[in-house]
Amino acid sequence: GNSVTQMEGPVTLSEEAFLTINCTYTATGYPSLFWYVQYPGEGLQLLLKATKADDKGSNKGFEATYRKETTSFHLEKGSVQVSDSAVYFCALSDRAGGTSYGKLTFGQGTILTVHP
Amino acid sequence: GAVVSQHPSWVICKSGTSVKIECRSLDFQATTMFWYRQFPKQSLMLMATSNEGSKATYEQGVEKDKFLINHASLTLSTLTVTSAHPEDSSFYICSARALAKQETQYFGPGTRLLVL
Lengths: 116, 116
Hints:
The complex is a heterodimer of chains A (116) and B (116). Chain A has 116 residues and is mainly beta. Helix content of chain A is 0%, strand content 49%. Chain A is globular, with a radius of gyration of 14 Å. The mean pLDDT of chain A is 90. In chain B, 0% of the residues lie in helices and 55% in strands. In chain B, a hairpin with a 2-residue loop joins strand 7 and strand 8. Chain B is globular and about 40 Å long. The mean pLDDT of chain B is 90. The chains are: A mainly beta (116), B mainly beta (116).
């Protein structure tokens, strides 16, 4: 079955530091890949996505590239801010069709804390 | 665009009572809605997938008689936790998928349920 593995957290950084959160996946076929962010006490917000190999998703200074050869979708940001403190989830969406189409498989989440 | 709301955001109830949670897509038609459960500091667990006008598909291990899901219109799905017990206390999150963008789910802000 499908699975998503994220680097374990928590990750603690100083403001303006470089961020990388690793994500690798196992899937049949050609899934779409997502990063979601969850701020304290809130639901998930779509941060970025990529739907095919070599696509780069980007938003709010974050970016991730769909690497089929390494089955990875690592999240990066060049300079983090205190407001980026949240939980980040990597996810994939099955394209198998039928009732399984669009089901999201999530990684375990990575807690990011950014200090001033 | 692509806003999903949930109501209520917080609910406290007595053991043995039933609680209904609403999930609405505010600015798009959602042919499919998903219900997730999230335990503290853990990832999201998919409970069920509901398609408008048909019965929900439950994930393995989720009691369909306990977690009743209704998706009566293209903008509304409800989750009813019947005869709630303290172990049902959790954060329940819904998401919705638009017909035109089937690879992307948009999440509601979540409902925190506490059963006393």
